[in-house]
Design brief:
This protein is an alpha/beta fold and about 850 residues long. The chain has 4 domains: about 20-95, no CATH class; about 110-410 and about 705-720, Rossmann fold, CATH 3.40.50.2000; about 415-695, 3-Layer(aba) Sandwich (Rossmann fold), CATH 3.40.50.2000; about 745-860, Immunoglobulins (Immunoglobulin-like, Sandwich), CATH 2.60.40. The protein has 28 helices and 27 strands. Strand 19 (about 615-620), helix 25 and strand 20 (about 635) form a beta-alpha-beta unit. The radius of gyration is 29 Å and the shape is globular. The chain starts with about 25 loop residues before the first helix and ends with a strand.
């Protein structure tokens, strides 16, 4: 082992900024610069070469800029004007007061927990779409002045850098983050000491250091275990790397995120009213909330669970069971036996929270099941994903039909100011109303795009396309030189792609379900398309495979080897080390965005939204968000809306080739003698109008606010009133209902329509229910009305609540009238359930319910 020198004392050196530029560091520390073109331009203007070599990191840049350069800038009236404007922009932005909304809560505060955040390319604490979505969520919340704080982990090693060997095989190189060279700040106490919190892991105390990132108006707090206070190496390594290590590392990371994150908020004096779990990684925060309520409010376990549940929100991003974190009971015992003993609830109670079937001792603890059971509000991330999720989790509500499983959907969006290219933004500044960046989900605003001349939009896109191609050439040639490729290979990569050629982009994580090689399925036919002398096509591809994903790595290798085929080597290029910067260049610069997942397995996907907002047309399977947008997007749908089957592989590939040959390429190259492809630009404008208005993060966080956060905040207010009396009362009520429920049942099922009825005529719906001593306010009696299908099942149903009409001892008559508006064979069934809440989305798991039979009638 080589000799190493440890510092006796550490100190921090900051750049010596001239007095007239003293706020440059402050401007670099707030990530507003990452989505404000004018702020970002200030750093680029200071020294373009250093800005690029610093990986667009203002902290590193200011440490590298020579003092004479700073002095020249301080004496340059042009730069000073930019600097003053940047300071005014930041000050105005931070000083803006929240705009009141009708019925909005004035004291609401959302705590948003996520395992990863994709904010900057120079801050690699994200792996892919989930992290970028989290970063966009914070930025849009800041723009919307939504009161929100973020919680996450600060990883010592960033998610891996990708390099390709001579044969195209992916290799991983792990970057080490120097936190003092990043726009992150350690949180300190009033006495100047660093803020630390602790968690207990398998009997040992682990210290967590708290850092802060300023994301506009939003604060993101990140936890770090790689500190001197942790003497054990395995404790320092907990936040070593995102998704690294074994199951012990994973459960430790999730304990630090959920339990440690909640303790950090308390130490900071922050008291959220809503807790948002972005994926199941942070589900332990709900457990910690139960512990705190038991200790501080003297609630029972059942009361604390009910109280904690009332303002928890859970977002699932997973479409397949394999994506769920599972921990066996032995591992849970190792980390939670002391926790349960301290809290005063049993280990079996804890395990039951994470099991579909609490009685199954062999079932592992599922973080997603725990998050679902401990949340009042749950959402998927697209409409199609909602249906997929309802099928995935229907066993948690065994008495409900799948379509009623209480999981709603809020389709993801992307943060438009971050992802829109500067050339297009400059055009918008001329033609759209001045506040287009702030009001960017107002459909009327985006209708103004129709007034922009086609030629200006076309030329703005061509300028950025040329820059994208220059970026790709430079990156590809640099990568080749680093792996000592032959000079002829480097020269080829310096000349790949043609700015005048129709360019298709494909960039994403190389999971096999995304089918990255689908377009190469019939290579001879693809070659003809790429090499068409009159209408050529070229491909730009990027993406990473997980280090353990051998099939994903094999797909990358296959594409790289195809790209070296002499016939098409100038038309196909793979861009190494996919990240935010590569993604931004591609979604802003290509002409068509390709997306080919197996339908039903892409929860949402957001890269196509980013492309569509830049006037790039989508060609995609109708999965995730594109299932909602295909017909209005201006792009093209591959295949139909049938569930995926292996037989579709050839069909979908043929569809891609047919679209390219017969529609996409002819439209792109049409009317070139006039300078602009007219029909192509009509589609581009359609994409810009529709996707910008409907799939941006401003719309998304507004829906979170109104559909989930505000109801959850009201749940918090109701639950905490009078020292949590509502939770105590609900617990008493639950015990009464549980005791009497076996005796509750329907009595007379003969009540109902006889024979045919006429449309529009009232049909009396009646139910006699023996409530066994419960009151009518304790239950909800409902009629599920619909068309009777050929198999005798109800279809196209709606749920109608019946009101109490009469009482005879413990038997109550419930009813209402229903006027059918369609003809045919209709029917209804009756059901009764405990009246847990008014909001059907808030229905707890495994809630009891009793059904009566189907009663049918025909209408004429």
């Amino acid at each position: 082992m080589s000799f190493q020198i440890r510092p006796l004392k550490e100190f921090l050196v900051r750049p010596a900024l001239p007095k007239t530029l003293e706020r440059l560091s402050e401007l670099g520390q707030n990530l507003l610069w990452s989505w404000d073109h004018n702020l970002r331009g200030l750093f680029r203007r200071l020294d373009p070469a250093i800005w690029k070599s610093s990986n667009h990191n203002p902290v590193v840049m200011l440490g590298r800029v020579p003092q004479p350069t700073l002095e020249r800038a301080a004496a340059d009236p042009r730069f000073l004007a930019l600097y003053r404007r940047a300071c005014e922009t930041l000050d105005t932005y931070l000083a803006a007061q929240p705009i009141g909304q009708p019925g909005a809560a004035s004291n609401m505060l959302v705590a948003y927990f996520s395992m990863e955040y994709g904010l900057l390319d120079c801050l690699p604490i994200y792996s892919g779409g989930l992290g970028v979505l989290s970063g966009d969520h914070l930025k849009a919340s800041s723009d919307s002045n939504l009161p929100l704080v973020g919680i996450g982990l600060l990883y010592q090693k960033g998610y891996f850098h990708q390099t390709l060997g001579p044969d195209g095989w992916q290799h991983e190189r792990t970057p080490v983050n120097d936190f003092y060279s990043l726009p992150v700040t350690p949180v300190t106490r009033p006495d100047g000491s660093e803020m630390l919190v602790t968690v207990t892991l398998a009997g040992a105390t682990v210290f967590l250091k708290v850092w802060r990132i300023d994301v506009g108006r939003v604060k993101l707090f990140l936890l770090d275990t790689n500190i001197a206070q942790n003497e054990q190496a395995d404790h320092r390594d907990i936040t070593d790397q995102l998704y690294g290590g074994d199951r012990h590392t994973r459960i430790r990371q999730e304990i630090v995120l959920g339990i440690g994150g909640l303790r950090a908020l308390k130490e900071l004096g922050i008291q959220p009213t809503v807790y948002h779990m972005n994926e199941g990684h942070s589900a332990f925060l709900a457990l910690e909330r139960i512990r705190v309520l038991i200790r501080e409010q003297q609630l029972s376990f059942e009361e604390a669970l009910d109280a904690a549940r009332s303002d928890n929100v859970f977002t699932t991003h997973t479409s397949v069971p394999a994506g769920i974190d599972l921990f066996d009971s032995g591992l849970m015992w190792e980390y939670f036996q002391d926790y349960c003993r301290e809290c005063g609830f049993s280990f079996d109670d804890l395990l039951a929270l994470g099991r579909r079937d609490p009685a199954d001792a062999q079932e592992p603890f599922s973080m997603a099941v725990a998050a679902i059971k401990m949340s009042a509000y749950r959402n998927a991330v697209s409409r199609l994903h909602r249906r997929v999720s309802q099928h995935m989790w229907e066993s948690l509500w065994p008495e409900l039909p799948v379509w009623e499983v209480p999981i709603t959907s809020i389709t993801n969006g992307v943060h438009l100011p971050t992802w829109i290219n500067g050339d297009l933004a400059a055009v918008y500044d001329q033609y759209l109303q001045p506040d287009w960046r702030e009001g960017n989900f107002d459909a009327k605003l985006w209708e103004q795009i129709s007034e922009i001349p086609d030629a200006e939009l076309w030329e703005a896109h061509r300028r950025h396309k040329r820059r994208m191609i220059a970026f790709v050439r430079d990156r590809a040639a640099q990568s080749a030189m680093e792996r000592n490729a032959p000079a002829v290979e480097v020269r080829r990569l310096q000349e790949v792609l043609d700015p005048e050629t129709l360019t298709i982009g494909f960039a994403r994580r190389f999971a096999t379900y995304k089918r990255a090689t689908l377009i190469f399925r019939d290579l001879p036919r693809l070659k003809k398309i790429l090499m068409n002398a009159r209408m050529p096509v070229q491909l730009v591809i990027a993406g990473k495979a997980h280090p353990q994903d051998i099939p994903g790595k094999s797909l990358i290798k296959e594409i790289v080897q195809i790209s070296r085929d002499p016939d098409i080597s100038h038309r196909v290029v793979f861009v190494e080390d996919y990240g935010i910067q590569v993604a931004r260049e591609m979604v802003q610069g290509v002409d068509v965005w390709l997306n080919t997942p197996r339908r039903g397995e892409e929860a949402c996907g957001t890269s196509g939204m980013k492309a569509g907002m830049n006037g790039v047309l989508n060609m995609s399977i109708p999965d995730g968000w594109f299932d909602e947008a295909a017909e209005q997007s201006g792009g093209w749908m591959i295949g139909d809306r049938e569930p995926y089957s292996p037989e579709q592989e050839d069909t979908h590939a043929a569809c891609i080739y047919s679209l390219l040959e017969n529609e996409i390429a002819p439209l792109f190259y049409d009317a070139r003698d006039q300078g602009v492809p007219v029909e192509w630009m009509r589609r581009v404008k359609q994409s810009l109008r529709y996707i910008s208005a409907n799939f941006n993060c401003q719309r998304m966080v507004n829906e979170y606010r109104t559909q989930l956060y505000e109801p959850a905040h009201k749940g918090y207010e109701a639950t905490t009133r009078d020292h949590f009396e509502a939770a105590r009362e609900r617990s008493r009520w639950n015990r009464t209902v549980t005791e009497k429920w076996p005796l509750v049942g329907f009595k007379n099922l003969a009540i109902g329509p006889d024979g045919a009825v006429s449309t529009g005529s009232p049909v009396p719906l009646r139910a006699e229910v023996d409530l066994a001593g419960l009151g009518p306010e304790d239950v909800r009696v409902e009629a599920v009305v619909g068309r009777v299908g050929v198999e005798g099942d109800l279809e196209e149903t709606e749920v109608l609540t019946l009101a109490p009409l009469e009482q005879h001892g413990t038997v109550f008559l419930f009813g209402r009238d229903f006027a059918p508006l369609t003809t045919g064979r209709l029917g209804y069934s009756l059901r009764v359930s405990p009246n847990h809440c008014d909001d059907p989305l808030n229905r707890p798991t495994n809630a009891p319910m009793k059904w009566a039979g189907v009663i049918a009638a025909s209408t004429s």
